[in-house]
């Protein structure tokens, strides 16, 4: 007898993802209304607690801690087009800074009590082995997405599977919330291209100033994103399948999603997408950071739409594409502090808020239990 082919980690992960459980969400909603506070007084936090319960398929949802942050680092061929004011070496230099504990992400992680893992999925130079560094280099950076596909399909899958493996390891070691992080000079250009390709929005609305380009470079950056979409045959369409109706098979939708990711994404985008998928497959909530994570979440959602039920938007970055990505995903950011850094900083800041929303459901007394009289009518 022939053996059944072993499913790839990617397909296995996608197959394991379930949408939110409506019963657990309804139970959470009802419990929320019995707690000793005026109904609705916790605003957005009430919705967050209900979402967490639906995602966990149990009410109340477990408090999403301990959390773990993974910062996926990679370089970008499109850097050669002059889309970032920073030299490419800064990616590797910042990896060393993360490992030495000297970046903003380290300070915020220390504040939140969250351990940091740094993953090399595509840094252009060789990085010396170091504690806290996971080496999963798929390539020495991507090809220039404005001249043709940034990655091969195989490279995109390898990076997705690196992200899946990192998520599985962190969850295996006890993480109950995954926080996404990125490092890659020029990755806001790839993010804009991904967001335009998946949402159908014009590059004018998805491209931002990244680390801070001047007006001339900003106009050039928008043109580069346009060229990337045109050369890869992605102009003027939303590629996530949402507008295609039910006629397209799930497999065809996945292939299209993968093609977009490989064409204009970065290796860190693909790895973050895999990381998100694996969190969702394990029903571990994924706290998303900024525009790079938002673009990766669009890729993950195009591969497996139910993944969105397991994502929480940590914050909204200043990059215009981030708001476009979040609105396409139907996610509301917890924090808006006009950050534009990445690294996982926005996700880290939001983690105590996410935990507070979940903790209310475990620790706040009901009107009955506390003997507090409910309002009349
Ligand atoms: C010192 C430094 C630290 C960073 N930490 C995150 N980024 C952020 O900026 C980069 C994307 O912006 P752009 O597309 O304009 O190059 C990414 O590496 C992102 O993580 C940094 C950038 C720099 C320069
Ligand atoms: O939105 C972000 O996360 C961001 C913005 C600028 C540069 N790097 C990341």
TrEMBL record:
GO terms for biological process: cobalamin biosynthetic process. The active site is at residue 343. It catalyses: 5,6-dimethylbenzimidazole + nicotinate beta-D-ribonucleotide = alpha-ribazole 5'-phosphate + nicotinate + H(+). CDD domains: DMB-PRT_CobT. Its EC number is 2.4.2.21. It comes from the Bacteria. The keyword Transferase applies. Keywords: Cobalamin biosynthesis, Glycosyltransferase, Transferase. Pathway: Nucleoside biosynthesis; alpha-ribazole biosynthesis; alpha-ribazole from 5,6-dimethylbenzimidazole: step 1/2. The keyword Oxidoreductase does not apply. GO terms for molecular function: nicotinate-nucleotide-dimethylbenzimidazole phosphoribosyltransferase activity. It is an enzyme of class 2 (transferase). Gene3D superfamilies: 1.10.1610.10, 3.40.50.10210. HAMAP family: CobT. Catalyzes the synthesis of alpha-ribazole-5'-phosphate from nicotinate mononucleotide (NAMN) and 5,6-dimethylbenzimidazole (DMB). Belongs to the CobT family. This is Nicotinate-nucleotide--dimethylbenzimidazole phosphoribosyltransferase. The lineage of its organism: Bacteria, Bacillati, Actinomycetota, Actinomycetes, Streptosporangiales.
């Amino acid at each position: 007898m022939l053996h059944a082919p072993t499913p790839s980690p990617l397909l296995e992960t996608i197959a394991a993802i379930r949408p939110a459980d409506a019963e657990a969400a309804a139970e959470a909603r009802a419990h929320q209304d019995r707690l000793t506070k005026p109904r609705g007084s916790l605003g957005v936090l009430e919705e967050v607690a209900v979402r967490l319960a639906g995602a966990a398929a149990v009410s109340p949802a477990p408090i999403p801690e301990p959390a773990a942050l993974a910062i996926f680092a990679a370089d970008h061929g499109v850097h050669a087009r002059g889309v970032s004011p920073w030299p490419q070496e800064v990616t590797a230099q910042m990896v060393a800074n993360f490992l030495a504990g000297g970046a903003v992400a380290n300070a915020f992680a220390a504040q939140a009590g969250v351990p940091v893992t740094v993953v090399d999925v595509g840094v252009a130079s060789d990085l010396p082995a170091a504690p806290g560094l996971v080496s999963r280099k798929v390539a020495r950076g991507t090809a220039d997405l404005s001249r043709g596909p940034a990655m091969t399909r195989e490279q995109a899958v390898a990076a997705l599977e690196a992200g899946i493996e990192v998520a599985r390891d962190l969850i295996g070691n006890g993480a109950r919330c995954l926080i996404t992080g990125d490092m890659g000079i020029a990755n806001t250009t790839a993010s804009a291209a991904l967001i335009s390709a998946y949402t159908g929005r014009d590059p004018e609305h998805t491209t931002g100033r990244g680390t801070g380009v001047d007006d001339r470079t900003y106009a050039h950056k928008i043109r580069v994103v346009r060229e990337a979409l045109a050369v890869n045959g992605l102009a003027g369409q939303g590629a996530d399948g949402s507008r295609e109706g039910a006629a397209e098979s799930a497999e065809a939708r996945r292939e299209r999603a993968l093609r977009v990711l490989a064409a204009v994404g970065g290796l860190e985008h693909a790895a973050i997408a895999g990381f998100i998928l694996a969190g969702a497959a394990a029903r571990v909530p994924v706290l998303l950071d900024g525009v790079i994570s938002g673009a990766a979440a669009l890729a993950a959602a195009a591969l497996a739409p139910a993944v969105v039920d397991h994502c929480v938007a940590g914050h909204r970055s200043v990059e215009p594409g981030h708001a476009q990505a979040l609105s396409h995903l139907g996610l509301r950011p917890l924090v808006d502090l006009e950050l534009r850094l990445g690294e996982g900083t926005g996700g880290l800041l939001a983690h105590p808020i996410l935990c507070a929303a979940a903790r209310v459901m475990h620790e706040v007394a009901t009107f009955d239990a506390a003997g507090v009289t409910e309002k009349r009518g």
